Amino acid sequence: MKTKIFFFLFVVTLISFVIVLTMCKKRENVTSTQQPAKHELSQRDKKVLSLVEHFKANLNSKLKDGEEISIDSSIWYIESMLNVYYARFDSSSLIFTDSTFVTIPLRSNNVVRMSDVNVACLALIDSLTVHYQKIQFNEKNVLLADISVTQVHNDYIIVKMVDVMGTNSYWTPCPTFGTTDYWFWSGGEGKCDNFGGQFIGTDASDKLYQYANQWIIERFPLGCYTEVETIGPILPSDPNAQTTYNPCGFETSLLFGDGSSTIPEPNECLSPDCMNYYLNGLLQLGETLKPGSKVIISYYCHWDVNNCLLPCWGHIHFAKFTYGYYLAVPFPPIILED
Questions:
Q1: 35, 48, 196, 285: which has the fewest C-beta neighbours closer than 10 Å?
Q2: Residue range 58-67, pLDDT digits in tens
Q3: pLDDT tens digits for 319-335?
Q4: What are the C-alpha distances in Å from 263 to residues 185, 259, 266, 306, 314?
Q5: Burial class (CB in 10 A: 0-12, 13-18, 19+), 8
């Protein structure tokens, strides 16, 4: 009986591995046939760059106090300007995420003044600089800035910037987990099984999104992304993540989840097969949730615990997916000097 179970798990793992490799090959083909050459500007690229350059020129000029713009347009311009002039998406393997909130006064006709947008842009650039400078690596860069409105009040709006930065730009295309990749599920507790005590500060959730991001084939150092949007957090219980079978024995989901009302509470150790299963789950969810013709920019995975009355416990991984439109840019980004 044990031999049959082992054989079944082996077949499931092999099928997942083949699916993952097939996805990688398909992504390479899509990149080579649909993406522009890194120096080529499409008509859309030229139009967006022209709009952004005009917007930036207006900010740098003496603005008339009466010049106004809609909320949606202001968000589009702020985000596009920050990405065009400060961000380039490359193969960074270590990802740092930070956020900033700014307030922009709102006029009675539900528009904002360009002079106030200018103040907000300067504040966001200052914040971007601070976040950049606190990363203690020589090689680093801004990958993207995601701008959104989080609150709308009678006389002001609150705008949020999520910036993503990277360093250590080595990239192994389409990596999979190997025979030593036994990782504790959470808490930065490093490797487990016979490899305990190694890589403290990292856990399964960290490795999953680091590996997933190396599956993104659309990498053009001379480009950035616009109309950025993030979907999530996606929990194991999300309908899009639910499956009929999980070979690891945890919740039947593409994302890790486990829980019980019995004790002791375990510190789950995810095997290489399970790590590859959940890696495939992240990649599959990224494709399922993709909005329209946008492309995946980044994957994110982290751990959390479910709130319930003791002795109940629950462990989960949640995921976020960021998408956007690629934009070729014919000039290098502005470096946020230390």
A1: 196
A2: 876 765 557 8
A3: 999 999 999 999 999 98
A4: 18, 10, 8, 15, 11
A5: exposed
